[in-house]
Amino acid sequence: MKQKLEALKIEALAKLQEVADPQALNDLRVKYLGKKGELTEVLRGMGGLSAEERPVIGQVVNDVRGAIEEIITAKQEAFQQQETQNRLQAEKVDVTLPGRSMAQGGIHPLTRVVQEIEDIFIGMGYRVAEGPEVETDYYNFEALNLPKNHPARDMQDSFYLTDDLLMRTQTSPVQIRTMQGMKGEAPVKIICPGKVFRRDDDDATHSFQFHQVEGLVIGRNIRMSDLKGTLQQFVQEMFGPHTGIRLRPSFFPFTEPSVEVDVSCFKCGGDGCRLCKQTGWLEILGAGMVHPKVLEMGGYDPAEFSGFAFGMGVERIAMLKYGIDDIRNFYNNDMSFVKQFKGV
Amino acid sequence: MKVSTGWLADYITLEGVAAEVLADKITAAGIEIDGVERRNKGITGIVVGYVKSKEKHPDADKLNVCIVDAGQDEDLQIVCGAKNVEAGQKVPVALVGAKLPGLDIKKAKLRGVLSQGMICSAKELGMNDKLLPKEQQEGILVLPEDTEIGRDIMKVLGLDDEILEFDLTPNRSDCLSMIGAAYEVSAILGRELSLPDPEAEIVENITKSAADSISVKIEDEAYCGHYAVRYISGVKPAVSPLWIQNRLMAAGVRPINNIVDITNYVMLEYGQPLHAFDADKIEGGNITVRLASPDEVLTTLDGQERKLEPQMLVIADGVKPVALAGVMGGLNSEVTSETVNLVLESAKFDGGTVRKTSRQLGLRSEASLRFEKEVDPRSVIPALNRAAALIAQYAGGNVYSGIVQAGTDTVEEKVLTLSLDKLNRYLGTELSLLEVKTLFARLHFPCGDGVQGHIEVKVPTRRGDISYDVDLIEEIARLYGYDNIPTTPIEGPTTPGALTKPQALRRELRRLLSHGGYQEVLGYSFIQPEQGKLFPALSEGGHAVSLAMPMSEDRSILRTSVLPQLLDIAQYNTNRRQSDLALFEIGNVFFTDEEQLTRQPRELSVLSLLLSGNRAVKQWNVATQPVDFFDLKGALETVFAHLGLTEAISYEGDSPQGYHPGRSASIYLNGNEGRVTIGTMGQIHPELQRKQDLEDTYAAEILLTPLYEAAQSRLQYQELPRFPGMERDIAVVVDSTVPAGELSALIRQHGGSLLQSVQVFDVYTGGKMETGKKSVAFSLTYRHAEHTLTDEEVGAVHELVLAALQQSFGAELRK
């Protein structure tokens, strides 16, 4: 019997050694160790052994079983490892292929600039005021110290709907509406973004529709130096901490004194480049101290209150900031243009 | 206004101030100088020569050989091709070595004859063609007989001059004159002025009274405050002296004859337009300033016949209008070479009246430009006298005694009080009384001593733009320099900055949509009238508003919908091979209820969306799939959910105009005031798609204001479920016309408190399904907050649901 077992062991180990795939391994496991396997067969024959022989043979059987199991386990492990290897090999991806993109839209560059300006002024304690695109002659002109037949009306030829109604040529009417709405309360601190319209033939730098952001501050002791301080802070937030401003006298009927505000070129830092036409300065804002007549029409006594106002063209700022050379791009809405303005 | 520095130097010394430096200073003080132009376009070595003789060139028909005395050691032999060269003329001679624009003069042989220089035309000297008097436009420039031989032509023609181009803002019409410019420069440089004194010059060299020859009358002084004339006899119209011509050309005015040139010269000098009439063409010896009569006609100096309107102001003689007041003279009273006697006019016409006339006729002139902005009433008489004196001197006129006038030049003296304290508070400065008074002195604004801190300032009549103390503050500030004003933070109470609720929500929508793949676009507020009719008005009974004078038919009404523009944008991009589009715009649309617009139209804020092409851009690992109705609806649902309005919104397939009737819906908001239409959505009507060259395109437009009002923040913690829910799926077969939404609503209604959610997860038609039927599959989730549900509990409710479906829609459970 012992001999039989030894023979079985030799045969099994030899066969197992040669086994090449997990299926064959399993077949051999069943053949030797299964319920009807050969080793089990031998065990069944142990009933006829003497009490002395039984433990000896039992020991042999266990050794044989142990040896067979050991090799099966080892083989199984090897096959497992092989399989994992094969799988990893098979699952390799080309990491240079592009990923599946997330849907991504964007906001219009003009919206982006308006929001940026709004956020800076909100941070400085301003509220955002808005008004209608169609205005009355009174709010668009008269209340801003531009009576009918005023020569300054030449500067802005307008789109009229009737003798009295027109597309607003500036967002300043919102200032008057806000002042009247505040009923003499101070301080007033608002910015007014919005669409405006002037009869211009469209070309690379003119558009009959464009956007403005205007600002208005009214209080009991508002000084021209405060206007300088405010604009200085704004341009540094908007264009970088080293940006400076320069005021040049100008004329607007609704402010006195009136100034044009230049910003030191944020591209060259003032040394002169193509953007600033070698001057080192960019003309960006109009501003001034609110004219006493405008204060009066807004319901504020000029003897008690003073204020400043400023305005800027959004398209112009966007063009300078992003290096856009044709204003018509904003309204063509070519995807290859508008989609450029996302990200940080 | 073109300001010649040479002319300016008559009134103020510019020594040591280069033109460019002066330009920068003037700009910094408030009047932008657009450019500095040198009249000398690059000439040297040109002198005045005398043509002693002219002989035909032996070998060339068109050439002459001239012997010229140019003040050199020897006479020069010059070959000249000009037709008008004659012996006895004084001419500009470019000597050998001279430079002309683009030309160097060398000794040369022309057809075998030596030429030691060149006789020049005005054009060759670089002078502006358009400004040259007619006789100088062809051939060589013939100079006056008394011109000094050998003199540098730069001096003779005033070419050693620089022109500053004043870009005037409408308030600074005082600088539409050389004297006004001189005042400005004097204030900036702080240098003294010396102005002409026409009183001293005037020669009334005839004792006859002007009043015997002419009378004047103003019908209504509202249109003309002052009208004055002088009568001058025996004038000899001719070419003006060179210095007048030079200065006119420097100012951009073309010389014509001495009479016209002098009126123009004095206008440039004083800013007061003048007009000379041929006195013998004034019928009846009287002049009336009056409004035009109906149907009156006048041919103006430019040869155009003008039909006059009753609100236009004219100058009329006893019979007919002879000039459009302040705009242009009439051809019927023009000064010609035959003119002997003159009526010289100087007046103050009302700016608004002149402006209206000039606008209505589309006729602008140097005169109207100045009158429109109100001339200085104190210049009317000095300018008249100055011109009379010049005419006497240069056109041989005899000036009759006296000025004939109507109206008056007396104006109320404007005295303003400026508080030094206010000035410093207004500007944030600390200027002393002395500094301020010094600046007023430089401006030539007389002022009091200001001992109490209140300075009385007399405003000169030339500065009509100054009416308030703040105008004076500006004068001080611009001369003091804005760079010198400090930079301060605002003092006083702080204010919280914030967006309003609609503003914040609008930003939120932009963020939501752009992060969801939609690209914002921005259209014009103007569209074509046809486009205004494509989609339903989101404002009941409202119709479109038109521009009175559109720039083009394409942009002639205010948009009633943003969708036509989104279609145009889609077409534009599709034509450029960018056809996978997800667009949105937030903007206003405009409606009025009135037939004749009298009030502002309603402006409604809308959100508009457009989808076209494929869902995702072509990718190697994503199957391209065209967008459909439910992509669009999903976007809208996300928007409504974001605003907390999912429950309040309903859709109805009622085929709104402009859309595919079977694939479109109106959108309703159910609020406190009942159900209101807030938008439309769907596939664009195939016909419209075809017109726009678009494949299947989906669009929606919704009103934002009612959404902003209804929007609520529903952010509130809800306890997490402690017991498991139970899911039951059912598929029911119903008529294919039954809306799934109604099935869901019925399920919700009968599911009671246990039913937590209902989801459609499959819709099936065709195949084995009976024609006219469809199968809709729902996934229902039941849950109880307090215990785990049993099959029995759920089964009871589920039975109710099935029964209701069966009863209301004849729904059969699909096996």
From TrEMBL, chain A:
<dbReference type="InterPro" id="IPR004188">
    <property type="entry name" value="Phe-tRNA_ligase_II_N"/>
</dbReference>
<comment type="subunit">
    <text>Tetramer of two alpha and two beta subunits.</text>
</comment>
<dbReference type="InterPro" id="IPR010978">
    <property type="entry name" value="tRNA-bd_arm"/>
</dbReference>
<dbReference type="GO" id="GO:0005524">
    <property type="term" value="F:ATP binding"/>
</dbReference>
<dbReference type="InterPro" id="IPR022911">
    <property type="entry name" value="Phe_tRNA_ligase_alpha1_bac"/>
</dbReference>
<keyword id="KW-0547">Nucleotide-binding</keyword>
<keyword id="KW-0067">ATP-binding</keyword>
<keyword id="KW-0479">Metal-binding</keyword>
<dbReference type="GO" id="GO:0005737">
    <property type="term" value="C:cytoplasm"/>
</dbReference>
<dbReference type="GO" id="GO:0140096">
    <property type="term" value="F:catalytic activity, acting on a protein"/>
</dbReference>
<dbReference type="Pfam" id="PF01409">
    <property type="entry name" value="tRNA-synt_2d"/>
</dbReference>
<protein>
    <recommendedName>
        <fullName>Phenylalanine--tRNA ligase alpha subunit</fullName>
        <ecNumber>6.1.1.20</ecNumber>
    </recommendedName>
</protein>
<dbReference type="InterPro" id="IPR004529">
    <property type="entry name" value="Phe-tRNA-synth_IIc_asu"/>
</dbReference>
<dbReference type="GO" id="GO:0000049">
    <property type="term" value="F:tRNA binding"/>
</dbReference>
<keyword id="KW-0648">Protein biosynthesis</keyword>
<dbReference type="GO" id="GO:0004826">
    <property type="term" value="F:phenylalanine-tRNA ligase activity"/>
</dbReference>
<keyword id="KW-0460">Magnesium</keyword>
<dbReference type="InterPro" id="IPR006195">
    <property type="entry name" value="aa-tRNA-synth_II"/>
</dbReference>
<keyword id="KW-0030">Aminoacyl-tRNA synthetase</keyword>
<dbReference type="InterPro" id="IPR002319">
    <property type="entry name" value="Phenylalanyl-tRNA_Synthase"/>
</dbReference>
<feature type="binding site">
    <location>
        <position position="256"/>
    </location>
    <ligand>
        <name>Mg(2+)</name>
    </ligand>
</feature>
<dbReference type="GO" id="GO:0000287">
    <property type="term" value="F:magnesium ion binding"/>
</dbReference>
<dbReference type="Pfam" id="PF02912">
    <property type="entry name" value="Phe_tRNA-synt_N"/>
</dbReference>
<comment type="similarity">
    <text>Belongs to the class-II aminoacyl-tRNA synthetase family. Phe-tRNA synthetase alpha subunit type 1 subfamily.</text>
</comment>
<feature type="domain" description="Aminoacyl-transfer RNA synthetases class-II family profile">
    <location>
        <begin position="111"/>
        <end position="320"/>
    </location>
</feature>
<keyword id="KW-0436">Ligase</keyword>
<dbReference type="GO" id="GO:0006432">
    <property type="term" value="P:phenylalanyl-tRNA aminoacylation"/>
</dbReference>
<keyword id="KW-0963">Cytoplasm</keyword>
<dbReference type="InterPro" id="IPR045864">
    <property type="entry name" value="aa-tRNA-synth_II/BPL/LPL"/>
</dbReference>
<dbReference type="GO" id="GO:0016740">
    <property type="term" value="F:transferase activity"/>
</dbReference>
